[in-house]
Design brief:
Length: 510
């Protein structure tokens, strides 16, 4: 008996199993937090219930004589009643005329490059060796970065990079731009049945390629858009320019009613492949790949029924006033005269500061009251008592959003936001899989991620989506969309014939 009890004790309480009091404490804290959130969320309802009860009790004690006296009183104050009614109608009219026009995302399309442009790791390294411009240290560095990047073997490079030697002419760059932009726009127009002549606003963003005539002019010429179209070409604004372009289109749709706006987000690799040996500039070679997206926006109430999403909030943060942030993603020449984009070691710290500023503005717009109170109470306590051990409260953004589209700038970006925002693997799955399948497609990556969510059948009516993008300058921009229906993937989606293979098991990175 004693031996049996001893054996049972050893099996039931090994050192790695948490003690019962610890389990009870964690469970209690969990339910205390849930109770707190429920109380704050339904506080107004809980306060109104007693008030309504008092009104009902008071009404039950009202006599016919009281009602008659009230009617007599109103008769003598007819002018006041009419005046109040006129003011109410006037104020309502002003409100409905001056309120912002709703902006709808009718549909969007992501470009998918042909399989012939794929660059598996082995092909990438072979092209780098054949270029004859990298020393052995640079080749080894690129090999290590590729292995840890989070990219797979299906990402695509521009056609000019498959040539030997690579074609870096402006003609080749134009060919890449046309291939991506026209490919996305052809799909968009086909899926929406919108005629190019119906487009009233066009916004194009591409950070590192800005030819003359502009990219927007190339689109006008290709699709023979109308002569009074308002076109804008955004350059040098980095990977967050896609949200900036949406913001510009939204502002234009507030001014010009009853029209469509098309936003095209892309990047150009042909003239931006770095052939030097500076390590901070070689990283972009390993991460950036061909991609682009085209979005159709509308301010027509008649388009609500067929639109996928409604734009709810858009918050932009610019940290360029600080020299360190300004130079964090910097296009320059190395000591040999080779042009490239430099990425410093402390880039993630700079991005974290920009994100903190951005969510401080976004949080009050989207978070439930319970999370706002916790966040501001810890912030005030830290300021008042100057106590370093008081950690700032990180709001639970999972209470505000069902889906997250984090810019697929690299594995470190996704890892950092997953940890800091306390997200689950399923929340960052669209970003990881987009990085794996398509690489860093710059400003268009958040649209590939949204397409992934749709292809998986996860988007339900009323779901909220948070698109987060980072870019040179340094900028952090957020766009919040709400699904107007259960959203299904559009025809010819970038994930159409491969979504069944995802998610894939990614290798472990040390």
């Amino acid at each position: 008996m004693d031996g049996g009890n001893k054996g049972q004790q050893e099996i039931s309480s090994p050192a790695h199993i948490p003690l019962l009091p610890d389990i009870l404490q964690s469970v209690n804290l969990k339910y205390v937090k849930l109770g707190y959130r429920y109380l704050i969320t339904h506080l107004l309802t809980l306060l109104l219930v007693p008030l309504m009860g008092m009104i009902v009790v008071g009404a039950s004690r009202t006599t016919p004589e009281d009602v008659r006296q009230l009617w007599v009183h109103l008769q003598y104050n007819l002018v006041s009643v009419l005046l109040c009614s006129v003011v109410l109608v006037f104020a309502s009219t002003i409100y409905f005329l001056s309120r912002p026009r709703p902006v709808y995302l009718v549909d969007y399309a992501c470009y998918r490059a042909p399989d012939a442009l794929r660059v598996p790791f082995s092909t990438f390294m072979e092209y780098s060796r054949q270029a004859g411009k990298f020393d052995e240290a640079a080749l080894e560095f690129q090999r290590k970065i590729l292995g840890r990047s989070g990219l797979g073997d299906e990402t695509c490079a521009a056609e000019a990079m498959h040539c030997h030697p690579p074609r870096q002419s402006i003609e080749a760059a134009r060919e890449e731009a046309e291939l991506v932009m026209f490919g996305a726009l052809d799909t968009l127009f086909e899926n929406t049945s919108v005629k190019p002549k119906d487009i009233g606003i066009l916004v194009v963003n591409c950070s590192t390629f800005s030819p003359t005539p502009s990219l927007s002019a190339m689109i006008v010429n290709k699709y023979k858009l109308r002569g009074n179209i308002r076109t804008y070409n955004l350059g040098g604004m980095g990977c967050s320019a896609g949200v900036i372009a949406i913001d510009l289109a939204r502002d234009m749709l507030q001014v010009h009613g009853g029209t469509y706006a098309v936003v095209v987000s892309t990047e150009n690799m042909t003239q931006n492949w770095y052939f030097g040996n500076k390590k901070s500039m070689l990283i972009t070679n390993c991460l950036f790949r061909v991609g682009g997206a085209a979005m159709l926006l509308s301010n027509k109430s008649s388009d609500r029924a067929r639109s996928k999403y409604k734009l709810v909030h858009l918050v932009r943060t610019h940290r360029g006033a600080g020299d360190k942030a300004f130079r964090s993603i910097y296009q320059e020449q190395d000591e040999t005269g080779m042009v490239g984009v430099s990425l410093p070691r402390d880039l993630m710290a700079i991005a974290g500061e920009a994100l903190k500023t951005n969510i401080t503005t976004l949080g009050p717009l989207v978070l439930p009251l319970s999370e706002q109170l916790l966040f501001f109470s810890t912030l005030i306590a830290k300021k008042l008592f100057n106590y370093s051990k008081i950690k700032p409260y990180i709001p639970d953004f999972k209470l505000a959003f069902e889906h997250f589209c984090i810019h697929a700038g690299g594995r470190a970006v996704i890892d950092g936001l997953e940890k800091n925002l306390q997200l689950s693997p399923v929340h960052v799955e669209p970003s990881r899989m987009t990085l794996y399948r398509f690489g860093n497609t710059s400003a268009s990556s958040i649209w590939y991620e949204l397409a992934y969510i749709e292809a998986k059948g996860r988007m339900r009516k009323g779901d909220r989506v948070w698109q987060i993008a980072f870019g040179s300058g340094f900028k952090c921009n957020s766009a919040v969309w709400q699904a107007l229906r259960d959203v299904k993937p559009s025809p010819r989606s970038a994930w159409e014939d491969c979504i069944h293979r995802f998610p894939v098991q990614l290798p472990f990175y040390d």
